[in-house]
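ingest -> validate -> predict -> emit
validate: passed (alphabet ok, no gaps, 238 aa)
predict: started
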Amino acid sequence: MARPVIGICAAIESARWAAWEVEVNLSPRTYSLAVQRAGGLALILPPDDVVAESPDELLDMLDGLILAGGSDIDPASYGAQPHPETRGTRPERDRFEIALGTRALEGDMPVLGICRGMEMLNVIQGGTLNQHLGLELHRHTPGVFADHGVRLEPGSLAERVVGGDHTEVKSAHHQGLGELGEGVVASGYADDGIVEAVELPDRQFAVGVLWHPEEDERSRVVGALVEEARARMTAATS
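emit:
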């Protein structure tokens, strides 16, 4: 059976190796490995302004979409002025992901937002962000994932994809959700009350988590996206 194709949105960053320092499309390998372990085919998606104008050309190649982590979303995307701690924004990435995510949700494609990607889901739906939480529980040391607990709402999609009503997670973020977007429902909370999972109940599979499940081989979250995409493929061909 053909593997479901899962698109993973790439970041734009500066990278150095040997004598070179260049701008690159970047995706930590843990994302693609998590997709592959679950039986999916990972496709890295670099920002593309042509796709932003007409997302269907790319979405027609995919069975599921991951809005991945990375640098801060440009506050202009949700009508706000930048906080002093908001850094590293890439408006071209924002344009691409807003267009791609909007169209994927309209077509009810399985969508998973991870960290920045959960925030992007909220922005796509017209929500806002808290640009700087200032909480050590979620990012105590740059370059090191923080460990903390998350409680999931009983009966929620988030509880189903996690596999229980409580989980320990790997976290690395300094922002969070402000006003929830249209149709966005909070379904998971950190021990300190910060919203850590959201979903769109009017879609079959649209969920976001503020932690990094791709960094934990025991996590079921990325696998749940792949399984949903596989189920859609099977139903379409039967």
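The chain has a mean pLDDT of 94.
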